[in-house]
Design a protein that fits this description.
Length: 288
């Protein structure tokens, strides 16, 4: 991936002699952008102005639009997976749980506090908007400096979400394929949705409106990354001509049934043939 708001691969090499054989090939080093703190550190250290929140959320969504356009779901967005440098420039990290959108998914992914309700309700074909839910949780944390849904376990997490968003309507309940999940929600006492203007009483009204659209219980009604970028709250930074998309990710190689040695051979060839981005190569030459 090649985007200003997504961690990139600048170089790849192995520490072995140039004439090392495939059998001696044991280690690989990846070079990525040097970033400073992550959002978790930033939130703990200081209060953020509304302008800071706008700029940070805009960059997250800009990176997500690029990731989603490739047909990929990140599935583990959280403050410590978002790096920020001293100029407040941001990159999304850690694609260890990322998957193509058409894959059947498991329910137990994403760090619990930022996990979309449809994941906990065992929807096997959830969409890219699970990432938008996570962004909503992160944005709320940027505003209040508190975790929005700090569940202590799976059930407590679901309870906190229902307490905030209220008892789900019938059309939502019909989408839950798990009988156990549906029965559990039906067992909860009826709850009214909390007023976001009260929960986030000092926040910019436009920020509250965007939060409501991202923290939508029904994934089918939740705003997309591209739609969120066009929201009035982010108008100061929005520039559709500078919000690039990516080629569709080709995951066909993941379906190959190769031996361990064959995979090792392919990785070795990839390392040997890798060409650093032109900008990174130029910087290396200047520093030599």
């Amino acid at each position: 991936m090649d985007h200003e708001n997504v961690i990139g691969l600048l170089d790849i090499f192995h520490p072995h002699p140039p004439d090392a054989t495939l059998e001696e090939f044991q280690n690989v080093y990846l070079v990525t952008h040097l970033m400073g703190a992550d959002l978790n550190n930033i939130i703990k250290m200081q209060n953020l102005s509304d302008d800071h929140v706008q700029f940070l959320v805009y960059q997250i969504l800009r990176g997500l639009k690029y990731i989603h356009s490739a047909g990929v779901i990140h599935r583990d967005l959280k403050p410590c997976n978002i790096a920020v440098n001293e100029d407040c420039e941001l990159r999304i990290l850690d694609f260890g749980l990322a998957r193509p959108t058409e894959f059947e998914m498991t329910g137990y992914v994403a760090t619990r506090w930022y996990r979309a309700p449809e994941i906990m309700l065992n929807w096997m074909h959830y969409t890219q908007t699970v990432d938008i839910w996570s962004v909503g949780c992160i944005m709320a944390e940027l505003i209040t400096r508190r975790t929005l849904f700090p569940g202590t376990d799976h059930i407590h997490q679901l309870n906190l979400i229902m307490e905030m968003l209220g008892t789900p309507p019938d059309d939502f309940m019909k989408k839950i394929s798990s009988d156990n999940a549906r029965n559990y929600i039906n067992s909860l006492p009826p709850t009214k949705r909390k007023d976001f203007k009260v929960v986030f009483k000092n926040a910019n009204p436009l920020a509250i409106d965007l939060l409501e659209k991202m923290l939508e219980l029904d994934a089918d009604k939740r705003i997309t990354a591209e739609q969120a970028l066009a929201h009035p709250y982010l108008q100061k930074y929005a520039d559709p001509s500078d919000e690039q998309t990516a080629p569709l990710y080709d995951q066909s190689f993941e379906e190959k049934d190769f031996s361990l040695e064959k995979w090792k051979e392919l990785i070795y060839k990839e390392v040997m043939n890798f060409k650093p981005p032109a900008s990174f190569a130029a910087n290396l030459e200047r520093n030599d």
